[in-house]
């Protein structure tokens, strides 16, 4: 990804924290330094060369510049532009993997921005960093902070992973995934075709619609009836929508798993997230309830076998010709780890990061209080904005139909009445 898509800033991660009330910049600088001392990946560089290797540095002070936008006509808009510029600007991991900044909107409203190279962080790690920075800043300003010490640093896990990906265990993992994926094909969405991007238009389409609170509560009840979580249920609805779009009854989509089966890495920062391919086969008469049960089994099996990076599979395991298997991705945001900042302005702050170009079509379901947000990110050069809007609306409609009657066959689900 770094080689082929680094120019699109796909490898930047961001942690954002809105700080209200009195602000102590010296305390924040010390807290950032303590954060880098606590987590080795924040002070690990990757020298350029034929082989990627980690070079871990001793703890040292990290400059934390302040940008004051309090005199701007619209400080919030100015701050948002800074956040967008930060996430769009590449982080040179051969020099330093972390770029902190503080934006002052007014004397008692600051936005703390940590921009990181993806080599050293993922969504779960971002949540850890948000938690730890809050606690470390509190400690620097005289409050009590009780943080669990990381049992392993990332380099220890990397050595453990290398040991796991050898011998009988590698054979076991490879046998599972080849058995699951051999004969699978990439999803071919009929609406996808190359098209020129009009001048002045952004290269990326972002469409968001909401599942209301009553429907979301019913969806959670449906998950409980199936003894599962929202992830397999929302994934099953996504399969149903793809079936309606493509007519294909054998669908494989990518997703990201936390890949933290070892308890020693519960509080470890690093890039653990594993791309997994979730394949489901069904018939037109399969009901959504049956598809949820299948998806539950598929997800649980994938979790038990997520240690194998899918790049280690034989290149022809999934048919498609390009070798790319992540063009269509489904994600339940927050499924990696509950974030402390998933509300209000902090949730709005995430929008800039979500709009980065990463995959041709990325469908994200985001829990927001008692509602769900359904968000589609796709390439404007490959998809039409009107189609994208309809696709997300149809997903929300299918969710409503699913909770009304999950026993309707997939062939009739799209046209089933909503009660």
TrEMBL record:
One Pfam family per UniProt: Condensation
Sequence ranges assigned to domain Condensation in this UniProt record: 6-413
GO biological process, one term: enterobactin biosynthetic process
Chain segments annotated as coiled-coil in the UniProt record: none
Origin superkingdom: Bacteria
PANTHER family: FATTY ACID SYNTHASE, NONRIBOSOMAL PEPTIDE SYNTHETASE
UniProt name for this protein: Condensation protein
Organism for this UniProt entry: Micromonospora craniellae
């Amino acid at each position: 990804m770094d080689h082929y898509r680094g120019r699109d800033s796909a490898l930047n991660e961001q942690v954002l924290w809105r700080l209200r009330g009195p602000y102590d910049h010296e305390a924040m600088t010390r807290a950032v330094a303590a954060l880098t001392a606590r987590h080795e990946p924040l002070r690990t560089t990757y020298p350029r060369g034929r082989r990627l290797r980690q070079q871990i540095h001793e703890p040292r002070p990290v400059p934390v510049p302040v940008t004051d936008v309090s005199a701007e006509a619209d400080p919030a808009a100015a701050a948002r532009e800074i956040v967008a510029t930060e996430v769009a600007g590449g982080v040179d991991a051969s020099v330093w993997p972390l770029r902190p900044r503080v934006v002052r909107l007014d004397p008692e409203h600051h936005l703390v921005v940590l921009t990181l190279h993806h080599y050293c962080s993922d969504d779960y790690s971002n949540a850890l960093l948000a938690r730890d920075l809050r606690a470390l800043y509190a400690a620097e300003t005289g409050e009590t902070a009780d943080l669990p010490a990381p049992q392993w640093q990332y380099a220890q896990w990397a050595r453990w992973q290398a040991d796991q990906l050898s011998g009988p265990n590698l054979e076991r993992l490879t046998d599972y995934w080849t058995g699951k994926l051999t004969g699978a094909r990439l999803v071919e969405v009929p609406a996808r075709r190359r098209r020129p991007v009009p001048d002045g238009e952004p290269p990326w389409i972002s469409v968001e619609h909401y599942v209301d609170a009553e429907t979301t509560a019913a969806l959670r009840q449906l998950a409980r009836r199936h003894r599962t979580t929202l992830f397999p249920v929302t994934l099953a609805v996504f399969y149903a929508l793809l079936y309606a779009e493509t007519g294909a009854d054998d669908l494989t989509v990518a997703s990201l798993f936390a890949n933290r089966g070892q308890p020693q890495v519960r509080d470890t920062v690093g890039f653990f997230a594993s791309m997994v391919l979730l394949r489901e086969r069904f018939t037109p008469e399969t009901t959504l309830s049956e598809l949820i049960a299948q998806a539950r089994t598929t997800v649980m099996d994938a979790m038990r076998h997520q240690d194998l990076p899918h790049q280690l599979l034989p290149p022809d395991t999934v048919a498609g010709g390009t070798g790319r298997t992540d063009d269509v991705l489904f994600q339940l945001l927050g499924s990696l780890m509950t974030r402390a900042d998933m509300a209000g302005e902090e949730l709005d702050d995430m929008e800039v990061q979500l709009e980065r170009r990463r995959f041709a079509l990325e469908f994200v379901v985001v829990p927001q209080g008692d509602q769900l947000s359904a968000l589609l990110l796709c390439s404007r050069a490959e998809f039409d904005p009107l189609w994208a809007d309809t696709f997300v609306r149809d997903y929300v409609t299918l969710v409503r139909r699913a909770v009304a009657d999950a026993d309707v066959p997939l062939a009739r689900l799209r046209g089933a009445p909503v009660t």
